[in-house]
Design a protein that fits this description.
The protein is of the alpha+beta class. 25% of the residues lie in helices and 29% in strands. The protein has a single domain, classed as Peptide deformylase (Peptide Deformylase, Alpha-Beta Complex), CATH 3.90.45.
Amino acid sequence: MSAKSIVRAGDPVLRRKASPVADPTDPEIADLVREMAASLAEAGGIGLAAPQIGVSRRVILISVPSARMSDDPDDGPLPLTALVNPELTPIGDVRALAMEGCLSIPGMRGEVERWLRVRLTAMTPEGRPVDTVMTGMRARVLQHEVDHLDGVLYLDRMTDFTRFGYVEELIEADMNAAPPRTETVAPAGPAAQEQADAR
Ligand code: NI
């Protein structure tokens, strides 16, 4: 199965909500996963969503090498993993800011806030259910890829565009490798407002 070219921002497929997969073990999905794996290997990323090769289905690949781990004790490397119909639920109230890139926005990085810890439910292409907790870099990549399935790009989640730019310039400005900064998000409700006011 050969690599496909990666769709870039501006293509409407990246803005569409991808459709769920009825049968994760359908051979068509196995073919799609092989095509995605070849494309990810060629492009050299740590995650890929099916819409990024032009297929609007809820399938993602993630692969986190140990060099890309955060220093969260619960974080860790993850071998190439294919997930069908992935769903995420935030755990706790801690979010982390860190620089992110996207194969569909080549050459650029921006700082994005993500949940530090998420619960992942999904199916594998072999038909095995997945129900696990992911933290740190793994949680970040998952949130980025699941966003792709909902037509969301990391740019949409950015709040400070002074922390966005071309990789070389960000490295030069010492912004690319800044360690993730975490913050606790106040829970919703009147008590939360009091808490926020007290800060
Ligand atoms: Ni991306």
